[in-house]
Amino acid sequence: MIFAEKKPMAEILEKLTGYKKILVVGCATCVSECAVGGEKEVETLAPLISLAFKEKGLHIEVFTATLEKQCEYEFVEEIAEKIENVDVVLSLGCGIGVQALAERFPDKPIYPGVNTSALTIREEAGVWASRCAACGDCTLADTFGYCAVARCAKSLMNGPCGGTRKDGKCELNEENDCIWNLIVERAESRGELDSISKVQKPKSWSNGRHGGPKKVIDEVQRV
Amino acid sequence: MAVPNTNWRYFIINTNNNSKSAEKKLKLVLLYCQNCVANNRDINLIATKAKEFTLRTAVLPCSSKIQAHIILKILDNEADGVEIVVCPDEKCHFLAGSIRAKKRVEYVRRLLDEIGVGTDRVGLTQEIDLSCDDLIEIASRRIAKIKSSYEEGDNL
Questions:
Q1: Touching check for B3 and chain A: CB below 8 Å?
Q2: Residue A107 to residues A16, A72, A96: CA-CA distances in angstroms?
Q3: ipTM for the complex?
Q4: Number of structural domains found in chain A
């Protein structure tokens, strides 16, 4: 899922200062799963914003809405009426959600309330960890199902780097597994250690973020 | 959602004589786990026993039902403070209920601190076999802290 983290309140409040009617918009998909932008978080942030302004002696009105998906125009349309009646929108959606709102409602200030930071898996309750970097050239077949781009601190395609700790953790962060250590262990357990001895050619990054903004057109899907 | 203007504190400025004499009665909402109280019979009288402040109580089926947004909405729309009363960790009938409540209260306190409201507006007490008078005492302690934080704010 797309993972995001709440922005500091000081940053949020600075952006909202001067507005009288605020709409906080959440998304019930990824950011809800990572407990930062779903309905519960929207309903938590709204009274908090109100309280913060009251503390400064300012009276504002805070409205709330949570969309099924903030990244799809069909769902965004649901809040068209609400947005007409407010001065500013604070989106708790990921970066895609914020832009979907800004595209649909170009005359209204739309501010992000979260920082979108990773593509993660929920390892257990309250624990999320990177699994994908959307690099555009998946090599998981060569790395035994472990992503060296997202999970190696140096994104090495020919690892390990030599800095693996004795307990198999990364030299840069002792809480993270050295992913190349795990790759070697899995290769060994399958009896395929030789396959990772092969030097990987330089990876093409042109199909990911480094290749510039992506726009894909699939004629089959278009009516 | 229309937000009522409750932007006054413990003391409000009397516009006629410009003194801090008009004292507002503080309000506290006390949320307690049903398993904390020894006897429910006299709990109904609790609101009438609070003389120095306004008190509203609500019983929770389990302390794990408390959520951050519930506490913040109470603070925003209704009361000066919220006190949550739950069982000690090892006495929790739901096993993890008290731990969850504790974490959520801490989270709310961090949020309040982040916006400069201060952490004293919300508290958590972990006790069991509580009587009506015990709850009044717990509420009074929270009110005293809120009053003190308001006075500090006014003196800044």
A1: yes
A2: 16, 19, 18
A3: 0.89
A4: 2
